[in-house]
Amino acid sequence: MKKEVLITVYDMDIGGIERSLINMLECFDYDRIKVSLLVCSHKGDFMELIPRQVNLLPEMRAYTVFRKPLIRSLREGHYLATLFRLQAKLIANAKARRRKLEEGSGYIQMQLESKYFSRLAPPLKGEYDLAISYAWPHDIVLRNVRAKRKIAWIHTDYTKLEIDNELDLAGWNKFERIVSISDACTDSFLTRYPQLKPKMMKVENITSPDFVRSLAEEETAEQVMDSSDYNIVSVGRLSYVKGFDMAVKALKMVRDKGMIEVKWYVVGYGGYETELRQLIEQHGLTDSFVLLGKQSNPYPYIRQCDLFVQPSRYEGKAVTVTEAQILGKPIVITNYPTSSSQVTNEVDGVICPISPEGIAAAIERLYMDRELADRLAAYLRGRSYSNREELDKLYELMKD
Q1: What is the per-residue pLDDT across 196-207, written as a single tens digit (0 to 9) for each?
Q2: What's the whole-model pTM score?
Q3: What's the Cα-to-Cα distance from 33 to each of 16, 28, 132, 161, 298, rounded to whole Å?
């Protein structure tokens, strides 16, 4: 009899967590495992990429509330849920002011909303051999799912998150295992929660090279890149964390040195777009720093580029970097704390300082030293990035 796995996620909007989930779903052994997927709100461009073998659970109205705007929740008649979310917002704002958090109350509000919401939402039917909470916060799996074993995933550097650690710890303690995507992510997590070390296990982001390469061959909506230019591509949410403001300044430095054919394309969307567009215009880069917006398939852009750059201030383990490696592209990433878990400097990419100057210097180096760029690309093309065997670690958890 097949073992039954449940995976939960909030929606399938374009993002690194959702992208890594699609890759993992592509690699399950469906002859042995029945995989059910709870997507709280059936929205997002990645919904159409969910493999047909996956049992996508029907959308439940109560579960769609969590990330809706408060006004919309109220208009749709979610009165009690809206009241609890408003309460969560007020408490989170008070905690943020007390702790003088730079990023405000957003993460704490998410924690509190998750805690209250999970108590209002109806439990899921059935029982599973393994329940996986793939996206933080993890209260849904804790309170609303019946399973023999429950595990939760971490995808980021927890030293950078301004959250209520005490509230978080109460949840983590109830999981049998906590899955980290890299040693660096584990180390950062344990600086906040050292007592959880016995629960930790590593399962790297699952990659499906065939899936990535097949999507990379699709035509883009419009061929925006001129092959006579030196084209840089980045993929990511438009947020301060992703460092695209530093990228704009770096491109200005590069072009001021006479490399006017260098153009930078960013695939992604987010709340930082207005500030970025203002910065682009301020630096006179309207025609050379191009925001391509939301794209469900970024791979054709990566395939066409000369250089892939990840200018982040922090990351867990960037899925898009691995995908650029699969496509054999020279890579520059900034030296955020977990960078060495993904790139070995000057072997399969270049790690540069987290600054506009550092990013500009790395771009200039690879632009000028084509031999280095070709060597990096050749190394990447010679590697296999298939790691579906990582799923064996999950299969082990389901053994009787």
Answers
A1: 999 999 999 888
A2: 0.82
A3: 24, 7, 14, 34, 30
